[in-house]
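Input record (one chain):
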Amino acid sequence: MKLTLLSFSATLAAFAAASPLTLNYSQDEIARLKGIQLSGASSGFQRRQSAGTTANEFLEGGCKDVIFIFARGSTQDGNIGDDPGPQTIDQLKAALGTDTVAAQGVDYPALLLDNLREGGCDPEDADNMRALITQAATECPSSKLVVSGYSQGAALVHRSVESAEESVKNLIYAIVTYGDTQKAQDDGQVPNFDASKTLILCHDGDEVCEGTLIITDAHSGYSDLAPDAVDFITSKV
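The corresponding structure, as predicted from the sequence alone:
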């Protein structure tokens, strides 16, 4: 019987209800399941549709006083998704000034199955995000970097920053994550990064933040915490 994306997602959801995030899938198994997901994604399954989901202000416009780098959640469109990336960016610009902030999304597949990997994301995606952060730090040494992500994007933040060069980390003034899939696994911090510059935002009842794959309503609508994120960022930059 052919496994459709919808039936696979239902199976994953049922399995997740009784399983922690740290699942033992081989790389070959993940690749096979990702092929199923990609096939479904091309037909429009598991996609959240919205406008204004892409930001390339650093790559297309260069340096500004603050460079805000954001990684969207699984299956979200564009490179910043529809929530909470755009809302955080809009509110940060309102607080600091449009001419002060360059918003830049992270281009990566954001496939659902990559949440099953060790570390919560594809290592290549983390490498690419690290390269983007390093590029910003190298080309804009006078800029203040802010790194953020939601859900799987939060995992990318952990994995990309933890092994970044110290000279790069020194230019990261704040990290904010939403619905962080690696909060429990990494003991409420981003490894090898200053905890005082880190804010992890989780809704009450969001079991993803407790190290599971259980997706509840609490894992959505994180734009309501964007004001908290912006308050923290503005206090650091």
